[in-house]
Design goal:
By secondary structure, the protein is an alpha/beta fold. The chain is built from 15 helices and 26 strands. Helix 10 links the parallel strand 11 (264-266) and strand 12. Pfam families: AMP-binding, AMP-binding_C.
């Protein structure tokens, strides 16, 4: 597949751009089968999980996906069925998605750091029929009674014709972080990758150049790892490095980049901060992309010196991703701004009536963007609430500055911690299941390293005295390990509205004041 953007005139690229889809479109063909037919020996994934480097070609990736497909068919999985993929970066992770898409099934990426309750909500809501995983993941899924398979148990491959799918047919169900209420499943069609490509190419200074090699420390279970890195790389013929680290470490990061000759990398902001703190430098990079939260001028300046290239910031969310980006190959970045809209995407800053405004307003994306979700899975009410007229409302506030989008803040209560977008509602629900918790409010507390850390304010039940450590372990055992409250404060009562809702705004102010007092104490 050829890159979408050709040329270096941003205005001309946008003016001449239009989404053109064939009547039949299947993600498996885009990312694997077409390449396997034309260039089966071409490198698809550079597998560094064992410490060395092993090349997985497109032909080998297709063969592995055919083995997954044979197993799925043996389980009775068919068109429209949901298939869980509980794997970190690996060829099998890619192959599992490819197999599901070729069959017309719907893949459901799942994070290996999820605990029981987080997995239960996603597997239950999606109605997954089977899960492709590893030995650790099989133990995690065992309580749910679903059939699972690991790579060493896959059957011999078969060859079945690919199911004919249209651009709008469902392909992948990606759950949000639960920023407002429980996590919702964003259902995307087979056009979703095509919709990502312009923004991905921009964020990597026109990805698809000779010698490009792509990597991210972000997990492939999230849309940022799956559709900002893995699948675009496979579609464009750019080798993708599989080297997921249990925890991000600067030395290991430098080793991966050096040994795999990485030229294009997506670093979440927390990874950048850790690299900066260690004074790390990475030579040989052609592009560095970052997204999830805005970077300041100081970080961008440091990146320019440490990497020898500009860091391109990009913007999007699970429901409609890669809609704006900086691109040093097309235009000079504007400090403090995210970037410009990707070709084919119309971004608006709108008021409460859904009308565009010249001042600050809600960042929204007009219907027609190819990376936009089809709907929230089996949730028409939430789907309707996500739109304001013809606009998908992101929940973020922004303003235009000379054609650049400046991020102002978030309308919701999302917590941005170490690159993860964490919704407080799921953590609150989990803590409320503890017998010693009467009520709880969860907010983000400012943190220099993580941007924010998760802080829970808890009111204990009468006659109970759970410790902070006990409550932290309670969440760790049930939700994702990155989302447990790193701090817990105990209060006699929480600020409440007249209808009984926790006023998180007051708790956030309290957390910010605590941070200021702690900082002042360190200075003095």
């Amino acid at each position: 597949m050829q890159p979408t953007l050709r040329g270096t005139d941003y205005a001309a690229l946008c003016e001449g751009f239009a989404w053109r889809f064939p009547d039949r479109l299947n993600l498996a063909a885009q990312v694997c089968d077409d390449w396997a037919a034309d260039a089966p020996e071409r490198g698809a994934i550079l597998d560094m999980r064992a410490g060395d480097m092993r090349l997985c070609s497109y032909g080998a990736l297709q063969l592995l996906s055919r083995r997954v497909e044979a197993w799925l068919r043996g389980q009775g999985v068919g068109r429209g069925d949901r298939v869980g993929v509980l794997l970190s970066q690996s060829p099998l992770c890619a192959a599992a998605h490819i197999a599901a898409w070729r069959m017309g099934a719907i893949s459901v990426p799942l994070f290996k750091l999820f605990k029981h309750d987080a997995l239960a909500s996603r597997l239950g809501d999606s109605g997954a029929r089977a899960v492709v995983t590893d030995d650790e993941g099989a133990d995690m899924v065992a309580p749910f009674g679903l059939p699972t398979v690991t790579e060493d148990a896959l059957p011999e491959p078969g060859v079945w014709p690919a199911v004919e799918t249209r651009p709008e047919d469902p392909a992948v169900l990606i759950y949000t972080s639960g920023t407002t209420g429980k996590p919702k499943g964003a259902l995307h069609g087979h056009r979703v990758l095509t919709g990502h490509l312009p923004g991905v190419e921009m964020s990597h200074d026109l990805l698809g150049q000779s010698g490009d090699v792509l990597w991210t420390p972000a997990d492939w279970a999230w849309i940022g790892g799956l559709f900002d890195v893995l699948m675009p790389g496979l579609a464009l013929g750019v080798p993708v490095v599989a080297a997921r680290m249990p925890r991000f470490g600067v030395e290991e990061c430098l080793r991966i980049c050096r040994e795999a000759s990485v030229r294009n990398v997506f670093f979440p902001p927390t990874a950048l901060r850790m690299l900066k703190a260690e004074g790390a430098e990475i030579p040989g990079l052609r592009s560095v992309a970052s997204g999830g939260e805005p970077l300041g001028a100081e970080m961008l300046g440091w990146g320019r010196a440490a990497f020898g290239v500009e860091i391109n910031e990009f913007y999007g969310q699970t429901e409609c991703n890669m809609v704006a980006s900086s691109c040093n190959a097309l235009f000079e970045a504007r400090p403090g701004c995210i970037g410009k809209p990707a070709p084919g995407v119309r971004i608006g800053v709108i008021d409460d009536q859904g009308l565009e405004t010249d001042g600050e307003g809600d960042v929204a994306i007009q219907r027609g963007a190819a990376s936009m979700m089809l709907e929230y899975w089996q949730n028409p009410e939430a789907t309707a609430e996500k739109f304001r007229g013809d606009w998908l409302v992101t929940g973020d506030r922004g303003i235009w500055e000379h054609g650049f989008l400046r991020f102002v803040g978030r309308e919701d209560d999302v917590i941005t911690s170490a690159g993860y977008r964490i919704g407080p509602a799921e953590i609150e629900d989990c803590l409320l299941t503890h017998p010693g918790v009467a009520t709880v409010g969860v907010v983000g507390k400012p943190c220099a390293l993580r941007t924010e850390l998760v802080k829970a304010y808890v009111v204990r039940k009468a006659g109970h005295d759970p410790s902070a450590e006990e409550l932290q372990d309670w969440v760790k055992e049930r939700l994702a390990s990155y989302s447990y409250p790193r701090e817990i404060g105990f209060l006699d009562a929480l600020p409440m509205t007249v209808t009984g809702k926790v006023i998180r705004k007051q708790l956030k102010a309290r957390a910010a004041a605590e941070c200021e007092a702690e900082t002042a104490g360190e200075v003095s």
